[in-house]
Structure formats: structure tokens, C-alpha cells
Amino acid sequence: MNERVVEILVYIMSEIRGKKSNPERLELISRDLLQRGYSPSEISFAFSWLFERYSGESEELLYTASTTRPGAVRILHEAERAVLSTEAYGYLLQLKQLRLLSDLELEQVIERALMTGAATITLADIKTLVAGHWFNAEGSHDRAMVWFEDKPVIH
Fold this sequence. Notes:
Layout: H1 2-18, H2 26-35, H3 40-53, H4 59-63, H5 78-83, H6 86-97, H7 103-115, H8 123-136, E1 145-148, E2 151-154
Antiparallel strand pairs: 1-2
Helix pairs in contact: 1-3, 1-8, 6-8, 7-8
């Protein structure tokens, strides 16, 4: 379920930022998500998480640039490039662009990806790691467990 919530968050932020939707149109986004097959509880959880995350920030912040350091681009180290697939890294950059990942969170997810010991981190793997980072491991990253279907790794 958590990966589906991440998909919903990406969709919501894309709609808000891409089409400059105002928050009053969130109900339309919610209806669209229902038509796309997401459950009301998944949509509700995603909106709750999003509102909690941005509760202290103004609406304007949703529409501003994505990076905390304008013009900064995260370049992968050779070892990181060897492990992260292009799609997985592109997905992380998309999340950062949508302000769903901060610079620090991007670093944490990349670090966790490397710590799994997997030879390659796919797009599906990175979605699992991001969902775990947001929903399962807040404040307890050291105890978090990650299971990939064909390559179980415990941290």
C-alpha cells in the first residue's frame, strides 16, 4: 500500500505544481485518483501526509522551485551510479523536483539504497525504499527493514 501512496503523492504534487492547481481543486484531484483505481483510504492517507508535511509552510511554497539550493544538481558517485538504475535515480530527482524529497532525504534514500547490498536498485526497489523512508522508518531509520522480492536484506 505504501508504494501506492507514494504514487498518489507524486500525482498530487505533479497536478498542483504542473497545472498550478489551487488547493480548492484538491477535491477534483481526489476524484481523479478514485477513477484511477486508488482507494479512499490511500487517497486520504496521502493528503493527510502531505498536509502534515507542509502544515507550517505557505501555499506559495508549493509553487516555488524544488531545491533548497537553487541550481544545485546531485551528481552520483561512481559506486552510486553502479548500483542505482537510471530509472531509480530519475525517480528520485522527480521526487526532489516536486519537493517531496529534501536534499537531506535524497541523501538518506541513496545511502539506504547502497546499504541494501543489492547489485542493482531498480525503480520498484527505490519506490519501496522511499515509502519505507516516509511511512515506516521516521525517527527509526536504523531499525528499518527492507525486503526486496528476490533479494531480502535486513538493516
